[in-house]
Design a protein that fits this description.
This protein is of the alpha+beta class and 601 residues long. The strands form six sheets. Strands 19, 20, 21, 22, 23, 29, 31, 33, 34, 35 and 36 form an eleven-stranded mixed sheet that branches. Helix 5 links the parallel strand 5 and strand 6. It is globular.
C-alpha cells in the first residue's frame, strides 16, 4: 500500500538553475516559520564554503507541511563533481522535482541526475524556473526537458508528465508563464497531487538502508535513511548488516525531520525519513533490520572516480609555521574520517611511501576536500591531478567527458582552437541570439587546466560545463603547459628590486615582502624552460646618486592563484603546498643539483 500523508521528493538540477533559492521560497511561503528563522538567501547552504562559492556541496533534508501532507524535500548539489551526493539520496525519494532554467534548458548535469532518479524509480515533475528572465524561452525549455525524459527511458511517464513554470526569485508558480500568480501554491499542489506517496509494507519486519551520515560531538555518528518496511522504535534492538558482518545494536534515540531541523520520536513507520543515534560504527550502505529477520537490501553503489591526486605531508622548509596538523598519522586519520561520509571518494596508500592516492570525481571535488582540511588546520602537499586509466578487453581506456561551452559567436575561434589542441571533438553547434553553444567530446586529461585558458582567451565571457561521459580508447598526447616557471635559488624575503628586474620577462606569483625558500616557484617564465632566479636580491647602496641609476621601482600586481587554478597549473615535477594561510607552488626536489641529477638519471 502507499501512504498518502507523506511525499519524499528529491530536487535535482544543473548548477545555478535555482534549486536552493526555490527551497528558500517554499520555506518562506509555508507560513510555518518566524522571520528570524529564515535569514538571508540560500538558507540551506549552511557551511562557509557553500556560502562563499554560491554552490551546494552537501545534500540536506527538510520538511514542509501542506494540505495535511508532510513533504520531505531533499536538496542536492548541481555540480557534476558532487554526483555521489545525488546518487545516494535518490534512494530515499519517490518523486523528483526536475528544475530547468527557462533560458538554458536542460544542461549536462540535468541529464546525469535525471538518469539516476529514473533508475531509482522516482516519478519526475518538470519545473521550468526563472521564467522572468528577459532571454527566457520557457516553452522550448519544457519541450527539451520532456525530450530528455523520453530519451532516458521515461516514455511511459510522458503521458502523465506534470509540469509547472516558476520564478523562485519573484516567488510564484504558474501553469502559464505569461500569467504570473501570487505564490507557490500551484507547485505545492502538484507535489501533493501528482507525486505518489511511499510504497510501504507495515506488516513486514523492519528494513532500512543508511544513505547519509551526520555527526555530533555528543553522540557520534547519526544514521539517516528511509524506513523501507515495518516500524522502527527508539530503544529497539536491531541487526546492523555491514559489508562483512552483522551486529546486534540498540537504537538510542530516534528523530524524524520536521521543518528545518529534527524532532525526537518514539517510533516511525515505513515511508518516513528518520535519523538514528546509537549505532557506533555505522557506514553509508549498511542495512538496518529487525533482529534475525535477515532481509538485507542491495548495498549502495556509486559511479567510480575518474581523477586522482597524491596527498602527502608538507615537507617544505616552512612546515609547521601555520598549521596544527602536520604528521602522516593525522593526515591518514582525517582521510579515513572523510571516507565515512563521502561515498564517491577512494583513498589508497602508495606502497613504499607515506603518501596517499586520493581518487574523486573531478578537480573541484578534491579541491573542496583540501580547502576544508586547510581550514581545519592541516598542512599538506598535493601533486598534479591525473586521470584514472582502465583496462577493458586488454586495451587501455581513459575517461571522456561531454564539454559544453556557451560563448559569444565572435569569440568562438579561440575556443575551437584550444579545445581542438586538447583532443576535443565537436559534436554539436547551436545558435542562441548572440551566443553559440558548442558541445565537445574531450578526454578528461584535456580538461585539466582548460577552464582558465578558455576564460582568458574569451575575456571571461565563456560559460563552461562538463560531465563524465564514458571510458574510451586512449587518445594521443595532450599538450603540457606552454611556459616554464621561475624557481627561487635562495631563502629569504622577496625584494622589490629583484622583482622589478624580473618582471619584464615573466609574471610573478608572489608580492614583494613574501617569504620564499629554495625550490619555491615565484613566477611564470615567458619562455618554455624553467629559470633559476634570486628574488631576494637587494639593490647595492652607494654614496653616489644619479638620475640614471636611481630607477623608480614600479611593480605589476602579482598573479593570485586560487586552489583549483594552482592544482591545474602544476606539472609532474611540482607540488602545491597548502597551509591554513597560504597556497604555494614548489618543485618536488628543492635544490637545483638534485633536479639536475634526476634529469641525468
Amino acid at each position: 500500500m502507499r501512504r498518502d500523508d507523506i511525499r519524499n521528493v528529491v530536487i535535482i538540477a544543473h548548477v545555478d538553475h535555482g534549486k536552493t533559492t526555490l527551497v528558500d521560497c517554499l520555506l518562506r511561503q509555508s507560513g510555518q516559520f518566524r522571520d528570524t528563522e529564515l535569514k538571508g538567501e540560500r538558507i540551506l547552504d549552511s557551511n562557509d564554503l557553500e556560502r562563499e562559492r554560491g554552490i551546494t556541496i552537501l545534500s540536506k533534508n527538510i520538511s514542509i507541511p501542506y494540505r495535511g501532507v508532510k513533504i520531505n524535500l531533499i536538496d542536492t548539489p548541481g555540480h557534476a563533481d558532487f554526483g555521489g551526493e545525488v546518487e545516494r539520496v535518490v534512494k530515499m525519494a519517490d518523486g523528483a522535482l526536475v528544475l530547468v532554467d527557462a533560458a538554458e534548458g536542460p544542461m549536462p548535469q540535468t541529464r546525469f541526475v535525471l538518469e539516476k532518479a529514473l533508475q531509482a524509480g522516482c516519478r519526475p515533475i518538470v519545473v521550468v524556473n526563472k521564467v522572468d528572465r528577459p532571454d527566457g524561452r520557457p516553452h522550448e525549455a519544457l519541450d527539451e526537458a520532456l525530450e530528455l525524459l523520453a530519451e532516458l527511458g521515461g516514455e511511459e511517464q510522458l503521458d502523465a508528465a506534470a509540469y509547472v513554470f516558476a520564478s523562485s526569485k519573484e516567488g510564484y508558480a504558474t501553469t502559464d508563464p505569461s500569467k504570473p500568480t501570487s505564490d507557490m501554491r500551484p507547485l505545492l499542489d502538484l507535489l501533493v497531487d501528482s507525486l505518489p506517496g511511499p510504497e510501504v509494507d507495515h506488516e513486514a519486519p523492519l528494513q532500512m538502508m543508511v544513505t547519509t551520515l551526520d555527526w555530533s560531538e555528543y553522540v557520534g555518528r547519526i544514521a539517516i535513511g528511509r524506513v523501507a518496511a515495518g516500524t522502527v522504535e527508539a530503544g529497539q534492538m536491531i541487526d546492523l548488516h555491514q559489508k562483512d558482518s552483522v551486529k546486534k545494536v540498540k537504537i538510542a534515540n530516534l528523530y524524524v525531520f520536521d521543518m528545518l531541523g529534527r524532532t525526537a520520536a518514539a517510533s516511525a513507520e515505513a515511508g518516513e525519513i528518520v535519523a538514528i543515534e546509537g549505532l557506533a560504527n555505522v557506514e553509508i550502505g549498511d542495512t538496518i533490520t529487525a533482529v534475525d529477520s535477515g532481509e538485507v537490501l542491495p548495498r549502495l553503489k556509486v559511479d567510480e572516480p575518474t581523477l586522482e591526486m597524491v596527498f602527502s605531508v608538507n615537507n617544505s622548509p616552512m612546515v609547521g609555521r601555520e598549521g596544527k596538523y602536520v604528521t602522516t598519522r593525522q593526515l591518514k586519520a582525517r582521510l579515513e574520517k572523510e571516507l565515512e561520509r563521502n561515498v564517491a571518494l577512494r583513498v589508497e596508500m602508495i606502497e613504499g611511501t607515506e603518501a596517499y592516492a586520493v581518487k574523486g570525481r573531478g578537480v573541484l571535488h578534491l579541491a573542496i576536500l583540501i580547502e576544508t582540511m586547510r581550514r581545519e588546520g592541516f598542512e599538506l602537499s598535493v601533486g598534479k591531478p591525473r586521470v584514472i586509466f582502465k583496462e577493458i578487453d586488454g586495451k587501455n581506456h581513459e575517461p571522456f567527458e561531454t564539454l559544453r561551452v556557451e560563448v559569444p559567436t565572435d569569440a568562438m575561434g579561440p575556443v575551437m582552437e584550444l579545445v581542438g589542441n586538447r583532443r576535443g571533438q565537436v559534436e554539436e553547434i547551436a545558435q542562441r541570439g548572440e551566443y553559440s553553444l558548442i558541445r565537445f567530446l574531450i578526454p578528461s586529461r584535456g580538461l585539466i587546466g582548460l577552464r582558465t585558458r578558455l576564460l582568458n582567451a574569451t575575456r571571461g565571457t565563456a560559460i563552461i560545463h562538463h560531465r563524465f561521459d564514458s571510458y574510451r580508447a586512449v587518445e594521443g598526447e595532450v599538450p603540457k603547459r606552454a611556459n616554464g616557471v621561475l624557481v627561487s635559488m635562495t631563502s629569504g624575503k622577496a625584494m622589490p628590486h629583484a622583482m622589478f628586474l624580473l618582471q619584464d620577462r615573466s609574471e610573478m606569483f608572489v608580492p614583494p615582502g613574501t617569504e620564499v625558500y629554495e625550490g619555491m616557484i615565484v613566477g611564470e617564465n615567458a619562455r618554455d624552460n624553467d629559470m633559476i632566479v634570486n628574488p631576494c636580491r637587494e639593490k647595492k647602496l652607494t654614496n653616489v646618486r644619479a638620475a640614471g641609476s636611481d630607477e623608480n621601482v614600479i611593480l605589476k600586481p602579482a598573479r593570485e592563484l586560487s586552489l583549483e587554478a594552482a592544482l591545474e597549473y602544476i606539472e609532474d615535477d611540482e607540488l602545491v603546498e597548502v597551509t591554513p594561510e597560504s597556497i604555494r607552488l614548489r618543485k618536488i626536489l628543492l635544490t637545483e643539483s638534485a633536479r639536475r641529477r634526476k634529469g641525468r638519471s
